[in-house]
Amino acid sequence: MAEDNHAIGIDLGTTYSCVAVWQADHVEILVNNYGHRTTRSYVTFADNKRLVGDEAFSEAGKFPANSIFDSKRLIGRRFSDATVQNDIKCWPFKVIEGPADKPLIVVNHNGEEKKFAAEDISSMVLAKMREIAESYLCSKTSVKNAVITVPSYFNDSQRQATIEAGKLAGLNVLRIINEPTAAAIAYGIDKKAGWFHKRNVMIFDWGGGTLDVSLLTIGDNVFDVKATAGDTHLGGEDLDNRMVNYCIQEFQRKHKVGIGENVKALRKAKIACENAKKVLSFSPDVTIEIDSWYRGEDFYTTFTRDMFEKLNMDIFEKCMEPVKRCLEDAKIDISKVDDVVLVGGSSRIPKVQELLMEVFKGKELCNSINPDEAVAYGAAVQAAALSGNVTGKLQDFTLLDVIPLSLGFECEERDSSKLFMNVVIPRNSKIPVRKTKSVTTKRDNQKSVDFSIYEGESSIAKNNNFLGKFSLDGIPPAPKFVPQFTVYFDMDANGVLGVSAEDTSTGQTKGIKINRGRTK
Ligand code: AMP
Question: What is the residue-averaged pLDDT of the chain?
């Protein structure tokens, strides 16, 4: 197949994915073969074939243990991670511990047991999105270049694993960009010149698995992210799981029989509860109906919005924490926020909107962009800008993003052996950025110093995400506290982090490069 020079934007979502392309000075959201503008992030290993997307979802009922979803909740995480352990309890498919604490998804397909990493499953979804783009653009060309979005709060390993998924799908990943930033581009790019000089815009992006909040100043095609905050494990799926558990308890109460881990029954309940949840965003009550749910027994129950809110109030309140943190980090007062923009399917929930309005002292929220498509839309704009296709509206397009998590190295306190995180680049620093720190030795005649690099907000380095390590050796003998080293942290516009250390007495330098795939 010939190669196409189009660059696509892909929103790789927990529950749905969306693909878009910039053409003739506007964005096209691309429709799948079911006529849908978003595609289920599902892979089903059915008899003799592998199905991906909406087809995989519609066949999932027949192959519940072989239908994989939520790979975004696993990607770049460790098997021992508490969130992974909790999720496993709710999934009808099997997840085991692989080498180096990596979770592996196990399916039985064509009489063979197969194991997949989360990035393998995500790559299948990405390949599907690529196919959708190819069939829309021209079936004779293969689309290679893509911008893929991730939650802004994704850490290094989650970003790396997403890049890997893109490569496995045969894509040339031009850039990984943050979902709320992409949504902000969708919000601002079509605004007519002079519509606003400069506006402070908060993006509240709550999807199936993650919550992202970003505060940007937008004006004259410059998208300047001031701060970002979020939770990579808080989404609509958590609400579905609570409703499923409620139904299981109700069934047990009525029929004195437990559903246990019956995968077919769990799947039926999940679909019924997700649908009911969506109805409750527009209606005060809903009937949850699950025909022949378990042992031939039907299940019916009326579920009110009030019950839904009580069941999930702690989750809704948890959503407000990143909002407040983002405002504090951006040092922008609530009264100075011009627009609060809702993105992501779960932002349609009335209680969440109510709590958000309370935080913003009654301010009207902005529903003007399509919450399901905005992220792919912005990714397509960035893809076009990066691929050199800069005509018309894209001419002065500039995106200035920030790092979501602090970067630093593990250090011993000067007067004790307590280890702590020595932050070099604080979270929400604008990139590109270069920062330095001075360090010294802790023991007389110390011969080498180790540098272990981490990202995260815990003051104990080991509780953060480990990125890599290196040592500076051959330090000339000297009393403790005398040798002086300078540690350099450089993050370039491509999100490549380089860390090096220099012994100022000998001029010896050592370091490592960590490719993080950050936004420009
Ligand atoms: P996204 O990741 O942005 O595609 O959002 C998907 C999530 O939004 C899923 O958990 C959906 O169940 C949820 N969702 C979609 N529409 C609604 C709605 N009307 N009310 C509540 N949740 C919704």
Answer: 91
